[in-house]
Amino acid sequence: MTELPDNILHLPQYQVLGCKSTDDEMHFQVDVPDPIACEECGVQGEFVRFGKRDVPYRDLPIHGKRVTLWVVRRRYTCRACKTTFRPQLPEMVDGFRMTLRLHEYVEKESFNHPYTFVAAQTGLDEKTVRDIFNARAEFLGRWHRFETPRILGIDELYLNKRYRCILTNIEERTLLDLLATRRQDVVTNYLMKLKDRQKVEIVSMDMWNPYRAVGNWREETMTYFETDMPVTNAYTESINRLAKDKNREGRGYSFEVMRARMLYTTKHKKKAPTAKVSPFYKKTIGYGLPDFAEELNYGVDLSTI
Ligand SMILES: [Zn+2]
């Protein structure tokens, strides 16, 4: 097989067959080489091509124009094992019908701009941008596992036109999470699901009368002392600054975007664990993530903000 030349798309594995462009759209018809071996049995060069159609995939904008790649997708039947298959496309995220590089671009841009802006720029619909953002934010949430504090601060913060609930680690001066509302059931539910919640010895919530009346979760889940530590107020200012800093463009961000930006695009406070851990100790971290829990992550470092 001859090697395909590089092309204006910088997708060396694709061959550009044609290009049509309008004021704000560019369309390319592109072809991929035949597969080398059967994806089922591995036998090489025993294919019969049949059926083809152009399938649209979105790509990065070029010169401000939205780009669609019409990929000539073929089906093949293998003479050796009689399987019919449609080969995997290189450089594409099939589930989203877009190039890998566009997917990465949207992941990044959706943290920095409103969904509508990213959608207009790329030609994707807003829901797709949101889906990509959500998947990314969820991944980051699993990746950055914040340690459960000994002294948990629960506070409120006026953000994006509503009162939100903020959770802090008072001893470490870090931000752990933001909840969309300060509604009691939402906060209670969050606390019930808190990992290692038995680690919490003290809960400080100095401004919230409704909470002082609630008993359910604390009796069941943690040793609870009500304190009047005035500590949390000191953070509110830092957290407000952080929120402003991450929302400079002003409007258009959803709460989820602001939350993810505040939690995952800010410096975290990390420390090496104090106790030596036996290499034979089986960790139960799970989540299917690589386990290099060398450092403990205490959350967003507020002392530097
Ligand atoms: Zn085969």
From TrEMBL:
Superkingdom of source: Bacteria
Name of the protein described by the UniProt record: Transposase
All residue ranges annotated as the Transposase IS204/IS1001/IS1096/IS1165 helix-turn-helix domain in the record: 88-136
Cross-referenced InterPro entries: Transpos_ISL3, Transposase_DDE, Transposase_HTH, Transposase_Znf
Domain Transposase IS204/IS1001/IS1096/IS1165 DDE as annotated: residue spans: 152-214
Domain Transposase IS204/IS1001/IS1096/IS1165 zinc-finger per the UniProt entry, residue ranges: 34-81
Any Pfam family matching the protein: Zn_ribbon_ISL3
